[in-house]
Amino acid sequence: MSKKNIAITAFALFSLFFGAGNLILPPQLGFKSGDLWWLVAFGFCLSAVLIPILGILAHAKLQGTMFDFAKKVSPTFSLIYCYIVYAISIALPSPRTASVTHEMAIQPIWNSSYLLTSIIYFALVYVFVVNRSKILDVVGKFLTPGILIVLLLIIGATIFNIDFIFGPTQFKSPFSHGVLEGYQTFDAIGAVVVGGVIIISINIKENSASYEVKKGLIRKAGWFAGLGLFLIYAGLIFTGALFHDSFDSSISRTGLLSAISTETLGNTANLGLSILVGLACFTTAVGIITGTADFIKGRFNDSPLAYQITAIVGCVLGVLMGQFNVGYIIAVAIPALMFIYPITIVLILLNVVPDTYASPKIFKWVVTATVLFSIPDFLVSIGHGDSTTAFTSWIPLREYHMGWVLPALIVFTIVNLVQHKRR
């Protein structure tokens, strides 16, 4: 594979990851993190960069669909998991891209409704989805460079014009707060969803390439995309931290990014921010709906009709949910993320490690432990945490909403030791 193909694929991955949540979350994290911005950035990049890129590496190894991620647990579990993830994807992060676009790029210029923005937005998304064979070229060559240029202008203007003075942090647990905020990017879920889009797109363009060649292409592109994400996230968090005393503490995520853009880009802020939001959000919506349509098409014997119907349903859902404001969609997403995100992280990690340490039995035990120990965090997120405190207070890291981590690690270690001893 040529360097050009690696660059195009890396740009496409970056753009498919970098959507609405990725754009509006880091600045506010930095704004509230104060002098501990680096610790918050570390936590955020762990869940929003490292885990997603490991998901892409897992795709490079499997070179299949999202179904392959969980099939070692059982085919039935994998099918249920896939349907849940795709349902969440087209019902929450995809519509959120339209809502963010409206609040930041449309509403300040035109006094139009969320509904009108969503209709036009998802009509364009549908056009790109049904022309899926051109996704890599269009996204990689034209859209991503525009995103990077505007972001670098904002970050660069801040670094060279603002004094490096930080306030106190507003977080009790900066690291864990960064990790959990990284959930809201949906990037781990995005890795298993849009990774399949990349695989199919590469197969269309390079159908004669060998498994090893395609694996090398995806791995290299994944690491380059990850480096780009890390630099941009860290830069946006750092930028937000430098503006800690410039705006009201209750400012919204979208309002903060708009204000920072105005401060740094001056008269060009509205145009630059509109382009940035439109590109970042649009490419993510295209990737999510394309990945969902690919999956449903595969479940119906590669039926083009199934692909078309899924694309239409995804865009209609986008129009309906896109009418709500960003804050509401983020709040609604929390319970779903508290349950499905730990399972997704564990599946990614198990698919990355060598097969010797990830037998079907290990998949079953570790995923079962993760599901069980994710339930308390899920109950807390829907307001029923007090009723379970007496039974779950002993769980390590529960107060940080990561009570599943140590149990999953312990089960992974024990089952591996038992299996290797028997061998």
TrEMBL record:
The chain crosses the membrane at residues 7-25, 37-60, 72-92, 112-130, 142-162, 182-202, 223-243, 271-293, 305-322, 328-350, 362-380, 400-418. It is a multi-pass membrane protein. The keyword Cell cycle does not apply. GO terms for molecular function: L-isoleucine transmembrane transporter activity; L-leucine transmembrane transporter activity; L-valine transmembrane transporter activity. Its main location: membrane. The keyword Iron does not apply. It comes from the Bacteria. Pfam families: Branch_AA_trans (PF05525). One of its GO terms (cellular component) is plasma membrane. It is found in: Cell membrane. GO terms for biological process: isoleucine transport; L-leucine transport. Keywords: Amino-acid transport, Cell membrane, Membrane, Transmembrane, Transmembrane helix, Transport. Belongs to the branched chain amino acid transporter family. This is Branched-chain amino acid:cation transporter, LIVCS family. The lineage of its organism: Bacteria, Pseudomonadati, Bacteroidota, Flavobacteriia, Flavobacteriales.
